[in-house]
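Hi everyone, sorry if this is the wrong subforum. Our group has a chain we'd like a structural model of before ordering constructs, and none of us has done structure prediction before. Sequence below.
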Amino acid sequence: MRSTLTRALAAVLLAAGFAATAAMPAAAQDTASQDTASQDTVPWAVSTAANEFGADRVNYSYTAGAGEQVHDGLKVVNNGTAPLELAVYTADAFTRPDGQVDLLARDKKSVGVGAWARAAADHVKLGPGESADVPFTITVPSGTKAGDFLGGIVTSVQQGTVERRLGIRIRLRVGGDLAPALSVEDAHVDYSGTANPFGSGDATLSYTLHNTGNAITAARQSASVSSLFGAWTAPAATIPDSPQLLPGETWHVSVPVHGVVPGVRLSADVSLTPLLTDASGSVAPLAVVTGSAGGWAIPWTLLVVLVLLVLIVVFVVRRLRKPRAGSEEGSPVELPSETPETAAEPETAESETAVS
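Answer:
Right subforum, don't worry. Here is the predicted structure as tokens:
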């Protein structure tokens, strides 16, 4: 029996040992049709016109009501040594996957500021060192709902198959009730596992931020993952603030979480603080928004070890119960036959008395 238990213990140890083993570029991409340009890489420069809105503005920012018009201007300077002819147009803005704001290409349809703004001229010709002001008007359609809209005015030149562009951002807030709102959508947790049956592993928390309000809003974020019944909580890695998202835009977030205990069912909690920026650049944090997600984290290695232990226990118990040949204990004992035999009755001595 002692040798059997020794073999069982060795099997358990072997199994455990195995298991433990400002003026902005109008475009931000360099492709065959469109080139990111900065004022240091092209022979011309753009700036806001000096007027009743001020001088030396970084970009355009307005508040207007539905049905109202805004009049402003763009200044263009030819810093090169050759004559220059530039196209001028307006376009809606969008947030690129890298978080930068970009403007739609010229052949893309705009439905917001890019459609409401119109430059006084669609081309401008400048000699070396010359400058010109290009007026433009923004007409907010009647019935436009309150909220933030973002676009820009663009100057561009076609060089072969590449369009080089410089533009300035136009931010327009249509008057009315401002309702900033963010939500957490499509959240889920993926657990990558661990070979240590009693250890922790890594997980990846993924979710989508959705600007469901009518204001341009960014988000400050934090998250954590906990195992079954809220035990063993592990904080996610530091999540940078999201870019400013236009109304209706989404932003995908994926963050690693280390030290996650595989407690069969995982629960993730996401906390967002919406950040609202006003026209002056001041940032106001709003009420915290929360979201949650779930995922599975099955401790397969631990389950394998437990199954091995159960099998070993069953093996040992059966081994102990099995009779061994030739052993005194457990060998059948043959009892003597008790077949009765007829016993002779004792003879009774008869005494004879002689009577004289």
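For your construct planning: The radius of gyration is 43 Å. Residues 27 and 102 are 5 Å apart (CA to CA).
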